[in-house]
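Problem 12. The chain below contains 147 residues. Write out its predicted structure in token notation.
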Amino acid sequence: MIINKILNVDDYYFDVFMSISESLTGFSVNELQSTGLAEIYYKHILGQIEAATFTEFLNISKNILENSYTQDQLNNAIAAEIFANASTEDIANSIITLWYLGTWEGAYVNDLSYKEGLVWNVMHSHPPGAKQPGYKSWGVKPVNSNI
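Solution.
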């Protein structure tokens, strides 16, 4: 797979971060960017863990992404090279949690991170108290409802 320039961020590793986030979350780079949190999350991680540790994780991710030509190869490489190592596994799990729940080590990154958590898309729901479901939404059956 080729890592393309994603946004006008002068840090090459940002593109790697977005590409590995796509693989870890199952959401496309466009879907992740549409949260409005991509750069915020990247900078937040840089402020939370040592730059050398994060760079090592991103270098491993870059090699995986560049040397995987099928989805199966990519999944196997992530399992073997990221989830098999305790330090990279911790970072990967934290990135997944960050995108899905908007939290890093149990605390929300900001107000938007709660609203834009991927968990709401997966649940076909909205974040209570933050986004309205829409006018007359109560008249529509929930997704996968047996009602």
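Discussion. Strands lie at 103-104, 107-108. Students who got a different answer should revisit the alignment rule from Section 12.3.
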